[in-house]
Design goal:
11 strands; 297 residues; Autophagy-rel_prot_27
């Protein structure tokens, strides 16, 4: 009985870790002018429980005789032993209906599973045949904001085909639109095999966090460390002197003679600072003015 319990345990661990891994893969953070802009394409937003990820498992856009299927993705780094479930959210295309029918899917699932092992697939009609080209794999995707001067505008996910088609890529711009979803409608081509499209989605809107006062600075952290070490020194020394040496009263504090004189030392230091400050003011007041050159007209 005990030997069969390890399978449910592994499944339970996977179920707990899948949401965490998926969300972490779909996050992007950008810092600009003391503000941090957080994007999460997979987080649930109003009327869109899967974020910018297509509920059908893919997006489809067509221009002239070219058809493009893609899924918005960011990365595939993470928990590989539960990769099947993670791919359903943040990596591969999933065709629940209307799968592509074309030739040339060797690096993207093969003829029987065309498109199921890449994040972007392009179909072009060549001499009457639909020929497929892999445009992107999530493992080689790059993410950046659309406009660094206005990071809240949205982000661009660029998926690279990798070694199979090194000159091919797809750039998907997810533009911030809070109330509804539009697109993708357009498909543009530049260079040999670089395509771009855009969509408007609430998930393209960042959560902006002010950088002022968020977290401890280096000086504050250093002061806290010194105070903690000082407290540990006083507490440890007092316990040692109390239990090991049997000392009682104010003498239980380590170096108590020195700490008793600290207020007096501070008072003397304040008097000296005040004295030298007044002395400097008097010197500046009695200093003769600097004579400048005069010109005669």
């Amino acid at each position: 009985m005990a030997e069969t319990l390890w399978i449910p345990k592994i499944l339970l661990i996977a179920l707990v870790l899948i949401p965490f891994g998926a969300n972490s893969q779909c996050e992007f953070r950008f810092s600009r002018r003391n503000k941090v802009f957080d994007f999460n394409l997979a987080s649930s937003v109003k009327n869109h429980p899967h974020g910018a990820l297509s509920e059908d498992g893919f997006y489809r856009v067509e221009a002239n005789s070219t058809v493009l299927w893609f899924q918005v993705v960011l990365s595939t780094s993470g928990l590989h032993f539960v990769s099947v479930s993670l791919y359903a959210l943040c990596d591969l295309l999933i065709f629940n209906h209307d799968p592509p029918r074309c030739v040339g899917c060797q690096d993207c699932g093969g003829p029987s599973h065309c498109g199921t092992s890449c994040s972007a697939l392009l179909s072009e009609n060549v001499r009457g045949y639909d020929v497929c080209t892999s445009l992107g794999h999530a493992s080689s995707s790059k993410v950046d904001v659309i406009d660094k001067e206005d990071p809240g505008k949205g982000i661009t996910v660029k998926m690279l085909a990798g070694s199979s088609n090194p000159n091919c890529s797809l750039s998907v711009s997810v533009i911030c639109q809070k109330n509804k979803v539009d697109g993708p409608f357009t498909l543009t081509k530049s260079g040999t095999c670089d395509y771009a499209t855009e969509m408007r989605h609430p998930s393209g809107c960042a959560v902006a966090i002010s950088g002022h006062g968020s977290g401890w600075g280096l000086f504050s952290t250093l002061v806290i460390i010194i105070l903690c070490l000082f407290g540990a020194y006083l507490l440890g020394g007092a316990l040692y002197r109390y239990f090991s040496l049997g000392i009682r009263g104010i003498e239980v504090i380590p170096n108590s003679d020195f700490w008793v004189t600290v207020p007096h030392r501070i008072q003397v230091l304040a008097v000296l600072v005040h004295y030298f400050r007044d002395l400097g003011v008097q010197v500046m007041a009695n200093k003769p003015p600097i004579r400048g050159s005069t010109s005669r007209h």
